[in-house]
Amino acid sequence: MRNPRTRATVSRCLALLAFAGITSTAIADSSGKWQNGQEIYQKVCGYCHEANVGPVLKGRSLPVEYVSYIVRHGNRAMPSFRPSEIDDEMLAQVARLISGKPVQ
Ligand code: HEC
To answer: Residue whose CA is closest, atom 34 of ligand 1?
Structure first.
């Protein structure tokens, strides 16, 4: 545990476990439907990306296609999300929000 890399990995894994708990509850409560990309960003992405678990996303002009790809496929510690969790329309909204483009 002295190695900072190991510690970072462990805390990411713990965050992932905690996250699995919160999403299943959030999804059950909203019957799989989100109101908009803002809600997804705050309740799902922000859980890691506004808490230093994942890298800062906003203000970097990340391309919409890139964000959508990562959300569907995941990348190392970044979990992937299925259409049953975040549908295509909501994914497009959250990706536009992150990229800094107008949402509608
Ligand atoms: C459980 C925590 C967690 C959640 C929830 C999460 N992410 Fe991530 N995300 C990460 C981590 C950790 C990384 C860094 C992955 C790596 O490089 O090892 C990451 C990386 C990314 C990247 C790549 C960033 C870069 O610098 O290239 C994007 C884009 C991204 N996430 C988008 C999202 C979006 C959009 C959501 C919400 C739908 C989301 N993430 C939810 C943990 C999370």
So the answer is: 45
Measured in degrees and rounded to the nearest 5, phi and psi for residue 47 equal -55, -35
pLDDT digits (tens, 9 = 90+) for 47-95: 999 999 999 999 999 999 999 999 999 999 999 999 999 999 999 999 9
Q: Among all residues, which ones are annotated catalytic?
A: 77-78
CATH number of the domain encompassing residue 45: 1.10.760.10
Tell me, yes or no, whether 76 lies in a domain. yes
Tokens 């905690």 appear where? 18
Domain span holding position 75 = 4-99
Task: Give DSSP secondary structure letters for 7-19.
Answer: HHHHHHHHHHHHH
User: Whose CA is closest to atom 40 on ligand 1?
Assistant: 45
Does residue 66 lie within any of the structural domains? yes
